[in-house]
Amino acid sequence: MKKFVKILIVLVLAAAIYSLIPVASLYMTKDPEPYTNDRAVSRLAGNDGNNFQFIVLGDNHAGLIYNDSATLKLARHINREDRFKKLPIDFVAILGDVTLRGSEWDYKTYNKIRSLIKWPVVSAIGNHDDDRGGIKFFEKYIGKYEMAFADRNSYFIIADNISGDIDEEKFAWLEKELERSQAYAHRFVMLHKAPLSPYQQSWYRPELSPWSYKFMKLCEKYKVDMVLSGHEHMFKEGRYGGVTYITSGGGGMFIQVPESDGGFLHYVVVRVYGDYVDYEVRKIFPPLWEFLTYYMWKELLYFVKDVLY
Asked: pLDDT digit string (tens) for 127-181?
């Protein structure tokens, strides 16, 4: 029995070390040429038909080995999404906090990871992407952080609210784009911080800010299909005023929320079928070395807490 346990431990440790290989390889690869959001959108110009998919995830926080290892595993799963060839996948959207702290190293790492995804990637800006003056690197490696574009029968708006607010000038721009979106069957708004927190136990309470109600009424008025955001490291969904709000912040960064409440690594596949829109959540098991050093203990801690309290 003791021999079996020893063999099992050795095998688990070997598998954990093996799970580190992809991220170690990432750091040793050469920097690929960066491409901007505009360039990514230009690749959508030839798309035809009204049935397609796009993928969203947020808060990969590139630049830390834990985050990068998890994001790489998500990227590998994303690249397999077309294996059944049911619906074409047009692009991937990252919902902000693409970097850990806005340094050039972080942006270079993000650019390496982004280059491994086989579809165009558009990136929203998050509050950490502007840390340490990182806005200049966002512009260098990604380009615009506020933009709108059409794809097939849908209109996509990427808004900037990294300050935790949307001022009058940005609201005027947003409403102008929402007016343009009325020529399309579907409207999707992407931004880093959601106008409300769907998680009761969260410290994040944006619904107490004046911009939140105004933003939600604007989305209701223009019949937005989905508002997609990150910031909170979890998955949650809610529906208000006929609009679906999805928080998807499981793109790689450490997740503190219990798994039972949506605290797991994931990405979301949004599917457009002509007049209809739905989505699926892809829950991804973390790299083994991360599970053994963090996620296993996180869940054990919450289990003990639930038992005791």
From this structure: 999 988 889 999 999 999 899 999 999 999 999 998 878 889 999 999 999 999 9
Indicate the length of the chain as a whole number.
309
Return the number of other C-beta atoms located less than 10 Å from residue 226's C-beta. Answer: 22
pTM value?
Answer: 0.94
**Residue 272, token pair as written in the block:** 């457009």
Nearest to 240 by CA among 261, 217, 262: 217
Alpha-carbon span 293 to 281, nearest angstrom: 25
User: Where on the phi/psi map is residue 132: left (φ > 0), alpha (ψ -120 to 50), or beta?
Assistant: left
Taking the C-alpha atoms of residue 31 and residue 49, their distance in angstroms, rounded to an integer, is 35
Q: How far is CA 36 from CA 43, 56, 91, in A?
A: 11, 17, 14
Could you tell me how far CA 245 lies from the centroid of its own chain?
14
List the alpha helices (DSSP H) in 30-151: 37-42, 65-78, 104-115, 135-141
Which of 37, 300, 267, 29 lies closest to 158, judged by CA? Answer: 37
Q: Are 146 and 163 in contact (CB under 8 A)?
A: no
Question: Could you give the strand order of the β-sheet that contains 276-283, starting from the edge strand earlier in sequence?
Answer: 121-123, 89-94, 51-57, 266-273, 276-283
